[in-house]
Design brief:
The chain is an alpha+beta fold. It is 22% helix and 23% strand. A 6-stranded mixed beta sheet has the order 25-23-29-28-27-26. A 5-stranded antiparallel beta sheet has the order 24-33-32-31-30, with no helix packed on it. Helix 8 runs antiparallel to helix 9 and helix 17 packs across helix 18.
């Protein structure tokens, strides 16, 4: 790292006008983009720009710590965060914060409006750019959707920290900041410097590295950084020496202003007086993430900078994963091959269970990276904590290490970058940080469609139930489809790989049912993991004349169209309906029924249209995985999915398109309707509906793969999980005319011990009985929700066997004597 680099460029000088005309446009790139693809400010066809006067990102406009006369953006020339602009017109997305335009049309509308960044929400900073108030917008506050075209909620600078935190959390949930691709904005001055003023000078590699890392720390506030460096490694033997491996000089921390300043100071004291123990240092990083014993991290004597003593407790590390997402990242930068890097080999093999086959080019570096990506790094925490490893070979000196670095990134789930000069190093790090920031906060539950009649045949569809968390009761949901290619890859409608390294739908993937127009308008080029665009939701919102069904007036029978009258009949009259909802005024009933039918009766998006369909009409499938069933050529493939809004939806998969066959609303869900519609801030999920996974019983008499009237049967059974203490059975032999076969609850004879119905129904046969039976566990007792030691359970201590066709209780196994018919 002490080597002089002749190709180093003269540093950017923010006080010099490289444009010659005071250019004040802000250009941008979305996601991970190579420096060769940066915008060209001199090109008349370049459309990737915004106007500086519309920049409401206070974090980018904050004074730079090195020279407060310049903002961070002016001084560094760039800034990375999740950016969105306020779309004040244009269809159902009007008055909402949208991702920056990624192509096609819409950029003129974007340039005319204000834009903001997720960094301000992370910092809970309600300060907006002066231009925001000059445009007749509120001068303070956090981004919000709707509200008659006002993009900011007006939270004042004098608000308490608790008020700021709460408002920022609501803003995140409402507006989608933090989702999708990160964006890097550049000043016109900086891009002109890159294009026309790259004068080479002599600089040491370590000086280039220090400046590059410092700049990126200052301009990427959404990443929580830590820093590790090599120890001296004077020991050249295979035994473990006192200064082997590497040490963590700054633990992973949230980048508050004091933490950022401390890290920058640490970076300024880096030197190049070391060998290059790549594998040993990555193994030490594993010890840190896992909360394991310190190995070389505090044995570096008087080396500068010293190890960070605050991240250890005695002889062990305090894992940063305790307060972070379950996935962390290591970026390994080297200017040469590994040297003096084999002292830990025996320890690595024994501790991680590696063998000689895990070695590559005489190093276990790739093997350790692969282990970090494939295994739970910290089993003391819930879930799987994994580490993704990126590698950068800096300068020509790293050319000999390229194969090893590439293999390490491949096994580690990251990517290898070759950076021959300072600009390439900066660009490589910028791409990596953009990829890290792009990980979405939405959740998906995949389900593969199998032919229900021939279990040897697997269809090529995979369905993803998706939901977007909120701090309010009403969560949005969606259903998307991808294809399984002949080679096992999961593909989108373009034939591109649709799953990223983290196992989520890639941001740029265009799912099968989503219109190409939606994908082309998206900033990432696809609907990907975005819950609020594409998929089944796109169809449901655009469709008129949806079939919303509910129970018939009798106990069982064909489901009927849901109206005010039919819903009242299903629950025993208008008075019972009012009581179930929790209202007394009959004049309110009409709006509640319209809301149940999906109308935006409260104008949630603030566009003045109260007859359009709400964006969250589907609801969240928190635990209800999709159930895909093939009815043969005539009726096709149908997909069932429950949601916590109280519905069971059926969709018809037409290959490249989708139709909603119907949605069934359970009258038992009426007591949650008022809270769902009001949607007050509650801090999280408080309303549950059809949250259990459905199970199907299929009888195909001639086994021809076609459901034929009269002889063949398809029955569906489902519970509610936290939504209630009941099970339901539908006859969907004709998928377009569903019938309620039966329902049972804790009020049914012999079922008093039935708790919340968490047990997924099992349909099977029992000896001496030809007809199928349904077997379920007794469920969950909410008594167990209490944080302390619970009292004796009053429910859930049973197993029930029911006649699958009638719902009659056949037998009960419980702490008390069994009941029902003999089995």
């Amino acid at each position: 790292m002490r080597t002089e680099e002749a190709v180093a460029a003269e540093p950017f000088d923010p006080s010099f006008d490289y444009t010659g005309y005071g250019g004040n446009r802000l250009f941008y790139v979305l996601g991970s983009v190579d420096t060769d693809d940066y915008p060209d400010p001199q090109s008349g066809s370049e459309w990737r720009y915004l106007f500086a006067q519309n920049n409401a990102c206070a974090s980018s406009n904050a004074p730079h710590p090195a020279d407060p006369s310049f903002s961070v953006l002016e001084y560094e020339g760039r800034f990375t965060s999740n950016f969105r602009y306020f779309r004040d017109s244009g269809g159902w997305r009007a008055r909402t914060w949208r991702p920056l335009v990624g192509g096609g049309s819409g950029y003129n509308r974007m340039r005319a409006s204000v834009f903001d960044c997720a960094a301000d929400l992370d910092a809970t900073d309600p300060t907006n750019a002066p231009a925001a108030s000059n445009s007749d917008f509120r001068g303070t506050g956090f981004p919000q959707n709707g509200d008659a075209g006002e993009p900011f909620d007006g939270v004042s600078l004098g608000a308490s920290q608790a008020e700021r935190d709460a408002a920022a959390a609501v803003s995140y949930d409402e507006t989608g900041f933090g989702e999708g691709d990160a964006a890097t904005i550049f000043t016109e001055n900086y891009l002109t410097y890159l294009r026309d003023f790259q004068e080479p000078i002599q600089r040491q590699r370590i000086a280039i590295a220090r400046d590059t890392i410092t700049s990126l720390i200052n301009t990427t506030p959404g990443v929580d950084f830590g820093l590790m460096v090599f120890n001296y490694n004077y020991n050249s033997g295979s035994s473990i020496g006192s200064d082997d491996g590497g040490r963590i000089v700054s633990g992973v921390r949230q980048m508050t202003d004091p933490n950022r300043a401390a890290l920058v100071d640490t970076v300024s004291r880096l030197n190049a007086e070391t060998w290059t123990p790549l594998c040993e240092s990555l193994f030490e990083a594993y010890r840190y993430y896992s909360g394991g014993a310190v190995l070389g991290g505090n044995k570096a004597g008087s080396q500068t900078p010293a190890a960070d003593a605050s991240i250890t407790n005695g002889s062990r590390y305090v894992s940063p994963m305790q307060g972070c997402q379950p996935q962390s990242y290591v970026i390994l930068i080297t200017d040469g091959e590994p040297t003096r890097d084999n002292s830990y080999d025996s320890l690595i093999r024994s501790e991680l269970g590696l063998s000689g086959s895990d070695s590559f080019d005489g190093s276990y570096l790739a093997g350790v990276a692969g282990w970090l990506q494939e295994n739970d790094v910290n089993d003391e925490l819930q879930g799987n904590q994994k580490v993704v490893t990126y590698t950068i070979g800096f300068s020509q000196g790293a050319a000999d290490a390229a194969a090893l670095l590439e293999e390490t990134a491949l096994r580690g789930g990251g990517q290898y970058y070759a950076a021959e000069d300072a600009l390439a190093l900066q660009g490589s790090l910028q791409q990596i940080f953009s990829e890290i920031l792009a990980v979405n906060s939405s959740f998906t539950s995949p389900s593969i469609a199998a032919n229900s009649f021939d279990r040897t045949q697997t269809l090529d569809a995979i369905y993803y139930a998706m939901f977007l968390p909120s701090d309010r009761p009403r969560w949005a949901g969606n259903l998307k489809k991808l294809r399984i290619a002949s080679d096992g890859r999961v593909e989108d409608q373009r034939g591109s790989v649709a799953i990223n390294a983290e196992g989520s739908i890639a941001d740029g993937a265009c799912s099968i049912w989503t219109s190409s127009a939606i994908c082309s308008q998206a900033s990432s080029g696809g609907d990907g993991n975005d819950v609020l665009i594409g998929g089944a939701m796109e169809h449901v919102i655009d469709r008129s004349g949806r079939r919303v069904l509910t129970n018939p007036a009798g106990v069982t029978g064909e489901l009927v169209e849901m109206t005010e009258d039919s819903l009242a009949a299903a629950v025993g009259g208008e008075a019972a309906l009012l009581s179930a909802i929790g209202i007394s005024d009959t004049d309110e009933l009409g709006e509640y029924i319209d809301w149940l039918l999906g109308q935006d009766v409260d104008d949630d998006n603030g566009d003045g249209n109260r007859s359009e369909t709400r964006l969250d009409v589907i609801g969240d499938p928190l635990h209800s995985k999709p159930l895909a069933l093939s009815f043969g050529d005539a009726k096709g493939v149908r997909v069932l999915m429950g949601t916590n809004h109280g519905y069971l939806h059926m969709f018809q998969d037409n290959g490249d398109s989708i139709d909603e066959s119907w949605s069934y609303y359970l009258p038992d869900m009426l007591p949650t309707l008022r809270e769902l519609r009001t949607n007050a801030q509650t801090g999280g999920h408080t309303v549950y509906g059809v949250d259990g996974a459905a199970t199907a019983y299929v009888f195909d008499e001639d086994a021809d793969g076609k459901i034929e009237p009269g002889t063949d049967k398809v029955w569906v059974f489902f519970g509610l999980r936290r939504g209630g203490r009941a099970y339901y059975a539908l006859d969907i032999s004709d998928p377009d005319s569903p019938e309620l076969m039966w329902s049972v609850s804790s009020q049914s004879p012999g079922m008093s011990e039935l708790g919340q119905t968490w047990s997924e129904p099992v349909i099977t046969k029992v000896p001496e009985r030809d007809a199928p039976v349904m077997i379920v566990g007794g469920g969950y007792d909410v008594n167990k929700d209490a944080p302390g030691v619970g009292t004796v359970d009053a429910m859930g201590r049973a197993i029930f066997l029911l006649d699958a066709e009638t719902g009659e209780l056949m037998h009960r196994f419980s702490a008390e004597s069994g009941g029902g018919s003999s089995v």
